Amino acid sequence: MKTANESGRSDSAKSPSLEREGSALSGWLMLAVNLALLAAGTFLIVRSLYEVAELRQAFPVAKFVAGILLELLGVLFLAGHFTLQPNQARVLILFGAYHGTVKRSGFHWANPFYSKGTKISLRAHNFSTEKVKVNDKRGNPIEIAAVVVWRVQNTAQATFDVEDYEEYVDVQSESAVRHLAGSYAYDQGEDEEITLRSNGDEVAGALKAELQERLAKAGVVVEEARITHLAYAPEIAQAMLRRQQAEAIIAARQKIVHGAVSMVEMALNDLAAKKVVALDDERRAAMVSNLLVVLCAESEVTPVVNTGTLYQ
Questions:
Q1: Is 63 exposed, middle or buried (0-12, 13-18, 19+ CB in 10 A)?
Q2: Edge to edge, what strands does the sheet with 106-109 contain?
Q3: Between 20 and 30 A from 261 (CA), which of 15, 59, 122, 191?
Q4: Are residues 139 and 195 located together in one domain of the fold?
């Protein structure tokens, strides 16, 4: 059973890191101070040596030591200068403790003991996933890839809550693409069913939402996510192509037949309404058959003109 202290430490470890603004002084102001320190230290050292060599006075230990200390202090303070470009931030860490983030671009100065190499780019990043082979909702093997546009929003989470936020984005993006492919059918879904091929905007929205949920732990915000490659796996591509062609032919035939029936109905109604000719049921059926053959045939039909009477 966990104690209260152990439970508190566990909850604290799982909570996201909070970003706060770090304090940094103007780099130009501190550069002037650093140069003044170096100049003062040099003056004291030279003055001490002058008093001993030229004035034959006792060696001024205090003055010489003060000059050395000023020189060391000036050199140490020079290490505190750093620059930031637009959309760039620096995380300030002192002996393992987080002391804030500086996001203002320009020339800055901070405690020289802050750890180096903690600059983070806040610019938008493009990441393209590798083409992965996965089964869709119906079990068909497909190839899919996506592009993700992302940027760091919370530098504290990106630095402290994950080991390597860029690698984290790579792995989670590929995992989200695999999960997305298994959640939808490739094509030819049921009525109003969302498919990968036919509903690009809806699928992109679902991918973006899932990625945002996964990457929020790393302080990353997803700007856009879209599928860039979608195809059946090579081993079933030909079979699926033939199926698509067959479905297209069937759909075309349905439209042709529907249109032909409408045209035949219109012709018969017009003939009856204008009393052009009176047809019995047998002749009406023959006309309907002939008209459907003409309208639905794949090749051009050569009509046979009857020069005699309709009735034998």
A1: middle
A2: 25-26, 106-109, 81-84
A3: 191
A4: yes
Sequence-distant (≥ 6) Cβ neighbours of residue 34 within 8 angstroms? 74, 77, 78
pLDDT at residue 202 tops 50: yes
212 and 173 in a common domain = yes
Q: How far apart are CA 49 and CA 55, in angstroms?
A: 10
Q: Looking at 76, 103, 120, which one is the last position of a domain?
A: 120
Q: Are residue 179 and residue 265 in the same domain, yes or no?
A: no
Residue 29 falls inside a structural domain? yes
Task: Report the C-alpha gap between 165 and 127 in whole angstroms.
Answer: 13
Residue 165 lies in a domain: yes
Domain co-membership, 226 together with 176: yes
Q: What are phi and psi of 135, to 5 degrees?
A: -90, 140
Q: Is residue 303 part of a domain?
A: no
Helix (H, G, I), strand (E, B) or coil at 264: helix
Taking Cα atoms as reference points, which of 25, 114, 36 lies closest to residue 74? 36
pLDDT at 9: 44
C-alpha–C-alpha distance, residues 312 and 310, integer Å? 7
User: How far is it between the farthest Cα atoms of the chain?
Assistant: 151
Q: How confident is the model at residue 123 (pLDDT cuts 50, 70, 90)?
A: very high
Instruction: Give pLDDT tens digits for 49-69.
Output: 887 777 677 778 888 889 899
The DSSP bridge partners found for residue 119 are 90
Residue 9 lies in a domain: yes
Same domain? 51 vs 115: yes
113 and 8 within one domain: yes
Name the token pair of 19: 């970003």
Rounded to two decimals, what is the model's pTM?
0.67
How many degrees, rounded to 5, is the angle at CA 195 between CA 192 and CA 198? Answer: 90
Give the residue carrying structure tokens 């082979």.
133
